[in-house]
Backbone:
């Protein structure tokens, strides 16, 4: 479904992504793990069009989207839950969700998806008239995911969804990710919480200082001694 | 007592003007964090467009006002496209300096074409506008009624646009978080253009109203009201739309009262003293909050 080939990204003189290639197949959960500063967020931001790569190609269903603006990529079915949630704090929960459906014109479909989000996250329904800035970290993460679902994505990017959340909430967020995947949305997940990510994912890539160093199934990597030592605290 | 009420009426009229201009400053700041110094010159050009409509095309006040608003809208969008858009990723200081450049260009460019001479509006229009209602010693002119009603109408329309429409929601989203807005599929460039369009339309309206109110326009007329409107925007909390409205009326009121009670010489000084005071006591402005970044 999504294919990244030899992506190179520079920030000034810093070579942030050094020929990153990865594939996400239809219906999978793929995770990208790695240390701070390895380039995980940069990879996601480049794929969703916030950063222009110096070279390399990004294709979605075989069509090259490397040159498309972010907006067009959303239209094609990419939705991105950014690092740090990035909800619109001064707007209400409902307005945040509506913005997620910004490019859609089908009122009925939007209403239906809004109900679906409320089913997934009942707390968002209770807080729909409240400004998003007043929500707790976990609620904001739910809102960010709900907002991303409002564009009816085919592939969902999640950047550190567990960051700053209590362990119980982390489990809940991962359950939600799984259920979103089961209802047919492909997922590319960036995580620092490697053990949770590997448990959830079908396949995984390990990013180190801008390059993919290992890839394999989630299980395989979870068993690998190198990974255990470097990322799983074992 | 009569004088007090009269000053309130005058203060509201002047405050309306400041509020209209301040809205443009605050919206643009809200969305691209730029103090658009050229904004006060869009206001000046609005006054000139109104003047030419009335003097040479013999149009009435309302059509002239509408034409000025439309042309200023185009001008505002054009300024953004030519001067600011290429600097989207530049440092803020570079854009700020550009804004000062655009401002000087518009002022002295206008002076080149229309001469620095002060102009006055056609006498019959001025006369009809300065007629009004007299209640004892209190004077309420048509001009003042018009300023206040046009301002209130425009503010209501603006609020509806920002709160209810799709593009208005996009504006708020971009001003809160550009990246996140882009991830929603919002076209950031279009949204910024639209913000300039709205602000410039309001400035154009303010220009025509002020031109008629004081019956005197010149190419540098934007400087002082522009600065005061900027103070108003900072007073209310820059980037916050209701703040600009409140700030505009507050500054207009202060200035009128200072002048009305015999300290005319100090009225500008008082306004800028207020700016200094705000910056010391509450830099985020009346409605502003110190934003902490959540990580």
Residues:
């Amino acid at each position: 479904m999504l294919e990244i080939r030899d992506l190179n990204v520079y920030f000034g003189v810093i070579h942030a992504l050094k020929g990153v290639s990865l594939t996400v197949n239809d219906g999978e959960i793929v995770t990208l793990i790695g240390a701070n500063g390895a380039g995980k967020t940069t990879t996601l931001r480049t794929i969703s069009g916030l950063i222009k790569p110096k070279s390399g190609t990004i294709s979605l269903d075989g069509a090259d989207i490397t040159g498309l603006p972010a907006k067009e990529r959303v239209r094609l079915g990419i939705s991105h839950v950014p690092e740090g949630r990035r909800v619109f704090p001064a707007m209400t929960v409902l307005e945040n969700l509506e913005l997620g459906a910004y490019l859609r014109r089908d009122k009925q479909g939007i209403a239906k998806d809004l109900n679906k989000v409320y089913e997934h996250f009942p707390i968002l329904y209770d807080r729909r008239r409240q400004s998003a800035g007043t929500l707790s970290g976990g609620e904001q993460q739910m809102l960010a995911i709900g907002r991303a679902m409002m564009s009816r994505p085919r592939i969902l990017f999640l950047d550190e969804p567990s960051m700053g959340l209590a362990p119980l909430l982390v489990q809940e967020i991962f359950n939600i990710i799984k259920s979103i995947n089961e209802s047919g949305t492909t997922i590319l997940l960036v995580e620092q919480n490697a053990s949770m990510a590997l448990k959830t994912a079908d396949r995984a890539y390990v990013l180190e200082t801008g390059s993919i160093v290992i890839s394999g199934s989630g299980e395989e990597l979870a068993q690998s001694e190198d990974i255990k030592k470097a990322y799983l605290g074992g | 007592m009569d004088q007090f009420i009269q000053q309130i009426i005058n203060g509201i009229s002047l405050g309306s003007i400041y509020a209209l201009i301040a809205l443009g400053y605050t919206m643009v700041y809200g969305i691209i964090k730029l103090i658009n110094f050229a904004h006060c010159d869009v206001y000046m050009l609005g006054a000139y467009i109104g003047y030419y409509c009335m003097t040479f095309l013999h149009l009435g006040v309302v059509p002239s006002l509408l034409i000025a608003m439309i042309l200023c809208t185009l001008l505002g969008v054009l300024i953004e496209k030519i001067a600011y858009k290429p600097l989207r990723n530049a440092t803020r200081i570079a854009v700020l300096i550009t804004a000062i450049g655009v401002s000087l260009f518009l002022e002295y460019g206008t002076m080149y074409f229309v001469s620095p001479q002060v102009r006055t509006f056609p006498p019959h229009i001025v006369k009809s506008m300065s007629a009004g209602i007299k209640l004892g010693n209190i004077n309420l002119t048509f001009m003042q009624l018009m300023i206040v009603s046009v301002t209130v109408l425009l503010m209501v329309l603006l609020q509806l646009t920002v709160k209810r429409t799709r593009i208005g929601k996009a504006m708020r989203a971009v001003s809160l978080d550009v990246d996140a807005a882009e991830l929603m599929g919002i076209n950031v460039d279009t949204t910024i253009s639209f913000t300039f369009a709205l602000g410039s339309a309001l400035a154009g309206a303010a220009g025509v109203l002020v031109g008629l109110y004081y019956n005197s326009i010149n190419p540098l007329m934007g400087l002082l009201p522009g600065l005061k409107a900027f103070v108003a925007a900072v007073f209310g909390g820059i980037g916050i739309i209701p703040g600009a409205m409140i700030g505009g009326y507050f500054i207009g009121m202060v200035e009128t009262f200072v002048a009305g009670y015999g300290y005319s010489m100090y009225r500008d000084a008082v306004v800028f003293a207020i700016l200094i005071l705000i910056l010391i006591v509450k830099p985020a402005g009346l409605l502003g909050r110190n934003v902490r970044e959540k990580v």
Chain B has a mean pLDDT of 93. Chain B is about 75% helix and 5% strand. The first strand of chain B starts at residue 132 and ends at 135. Chain B touches chain A through 18 residues (CB under 8 Å).
